[in-house]
């Protein structure tokens, strides 16, 4: 291939990536309008847009601005940080099965939040809740890297993540068991299922600063992720401090996931699915995959949240339950694909 042909192919690939990212951003905007219009009172995207620009009836303004807008903002922000965290962890560990939920970050964050709720140390509207959740999430990811080691294989990573997740789940159950207030236990049980229902701008104010800080940290390391694809030694020769990179990624994931879990409970598998959906379109460069994965995560959570509102049921379906139902078969498919790839490599 000549230099001109190579440059032309690179330009075509770049246009394809930009086009896919722009289309995904437009999809998120459309889903946002659909989310604001979906509920017991249906509103068209045109009516929602009118309300957002100061028009519409008083009833429509209350429904959109006071009830649905906080929920939709949280869906976009939390879906984005979960997709971004998944892409960042996959880039850091160079493993396509890496995700916050697989390695116990949401479960550990939930344990920290449940701890302070159950013992009355803070209520659900206190900034202490996301702070404790972030500390717990930070500890889980740090423990994973400490237990599995730098060059851990897929099996070790999964086993270490399973151990951390199981421990966090058992600790959460123990806290609920020791709580003397049955109403608190019931509230925690429903909260752990993961939901965006009945969220207000107070919850947005609680979560958004931590999510934004985590996203900024992860996005700032894009070039380091690209260098890391060559291996740790090659990345270090290019000036990347791998130890500092690992600490920054842990901090970013902990801030984002901890802030998200503190207001919605555990919502799994978004961080695993989003990067895989984007990789065939964007490519395998982890630096270029970050923003599309964030947009894909936002779109996935918006779709899931819209779905739980329109699926006929006698009680409200929790969005965390729906994402797990969809995510588990996808995860099993990825494991089967990895097994076939390893089998082909051995053969």
From TrEMBL:
* GO terms, molecular function: transmembrane transporter activity
Q: Which InterPro entries match?
A: ABC_BtuC-like, ABC_transptr_permease_BtuC
Membrane-spanning residues where?
18-36, 73-93, 105-122, 129-148, 154-179, 200-225, 245-277, 289-311, 317-335
What does the record say about its membrane topology? Multi-pass membrane protein
A Pfam family this protein belongs to? FecCD
One GO cellular component from the entry?
plasma membrane
List UniProt keywords, sorted A-Z. Answer: Cell membrane, Membrane, Transmembrane, Transmembrane helix, Transport
Identify the main location: membrane
PANTHER family, per this entry? ABC TRANSPORTER PERMEASE PROTEIN MJ0876-RELATED, FERRIC ENTEROBACTIN TRANSPORT SYSTEM PERMEASE PROTEIN
Assigned protein family: Belongs to the binding-protein-dependent transport system permease family. FecCD subfamily.
**Official protein name in the record:** Hemin transport system permease protein HmuU
Source organism per entry reads: Bradyrhizobium ivorense
